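Async update (no meeting this week)

Hi team, since we skipped the sync, here's where things stand on the single-chain job. The sequence we agreed to prioritize is pasted below, unchanged from the tracker. I ran it this morning and attached the output directly underneath so nobody has to dig for it. Comments welcome in thread, and please keep replies under the output.
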Amino acid sequence: MKQHILLVEDDIMIASGLVYALEQEDYTVTHCQSVAETSCAINTAQFDLAILDMQLPDGTGSQVHELLQNTNTDVIFLTVVDDEGNIVKAFESGAADYITKPFRLRELLARVRRVFNSSSGGNTLRLTLGGVSIDTSAGKAYLNETLLDLTALEYRLLLTFASNRGQLLTRGQILESIWDSSGSFVEDNTLTVYIKRLREKLGDTVNIETVRGLGYRVD
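Output:
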């Protein structure tokens, strides 16, 4: 049976492109343009994943998310608001991912596959790095069972290191990973600042090694 995706997007141009691309990936797609239309769809069908625009003509994607709370439907938010507070709030509400517009189509499709793989047990939902435990399904990280206060980009940076433990990562690879995960551009000289902040928050529990002239490695 094909996986069924609910797409809630009021921009017809964006929606038509997404529907076509998702159907080419062999997903079944139901497209809605408003909260009211989506409410009717939820009452008549079951969905495996919902891709929700945050700004709708008669409400918000968060309202749609509330309608889906008891349906076991994973949620990816789409938004033009690139605000770390909103991103963290989305993850805390249980969202599987958060993508800012404009986005790259291949990036979105990759995230859709990742959500489905995670839901089916194809990916590890909890990663550990030293004394840090990362709950990727909730978008949260814990240091010795205490929730870490990380910005969205710091979380993505930590996740990149945890997913590539023991491997040398060039600055270019890290920057690309942060871009792909957060939808935000980070300049090369800013990366040093983010790594410094992450080191301060992790303390001695995780060793982020600087490999001079090459990049970084976490063992």
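Quick observations from my side:
The mean pLDDT is 84.
The two ends are 41 Å apart (CA to CA).
Reply here if anything looks off.
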